[in-house]
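Q: I'm writing a short explainer about AtPDCT1/2 transmembrane domain-containing protein for a general audience and would like to include a description of its predicted shape. Could you first generate the structure from this sequence?
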Amino acid sequence: KKYKKSSLSLSLSLSKLFRPKKKTRNNKMSQMDISTRTEEGGWRSKPSFMTWRARDVVYVMRHHWIPCLFAAGFLFVVSVESSIKMVSESSPPFDIGFVATESLHHILASSPDLNTGLAALNSVLGVMQVSYIAWTWLIEGRPRATITALFLFTCRGVLGYCTQLPLSKEYLGSAIDFPLGNLSFFYFFSGHVAGATIASLDMRRMQRLRLAMIFDILNVLQSIRLLATRGHYTIDLAGGVAAAILFDSLAGKYEANTRKRQL
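A: Of course. Here's the predicted structure. Afterward I'll give you a sentence or two in plain language.
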């Protein structure tokens, strides 16, 4: 077969992945390859980087600026990671979220009633997200959010048990904090943030956009409080969001495969 020449990008051949493919006369999409002639299933005649041209760089920077931005971020992170000073064994963990909420932490530490009030409000949000997830299954007959929660919190329990992190010495607990009060809990990842994210994702899927926005705002405020009380590290919050998105996707695939088997 003959393959048409095409411009390839310098970032994982992005032009090959994202450029519109030209149709041939028989109305089939032409295959994009770096070699002008090669046997099917064989090795390419040229290494990919030998086909890169200046116009490919310009094309990628104009049309795929987001991967380019992440590529620059990757290089920056590599340089920082290789030169940063490690935290000593005798020092507490460094968390930029703790640093950003230092003043709020002092306010809550000096005002136990305020800390208790915020814990109560946070508990209301916890009850709301659990109630919504249960409602979607028991009342609306849509089990995806519930399946997501079951997948997610099982995984959280396994990871939390495998890597048990010490409680911060600055932790400000409350007897009415959702769901366990002052009992022990796993740090990684945040179940508070993950549960609110699961509910928000379902709301967006059902076009309940205003309600989803309210939950997102409350989730951000909840995250600030968790950092200020030292109830979670920043990585726990980010991990909660990422885990909710991942397991929501897996729950969707589980539902789709179940429907296929039934059909």
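A: For your explainer, you could say: Residues 1-12, 24-37 have pLDDT under 50 and may be disordered.
Q: Perfect, that's easy to follow.
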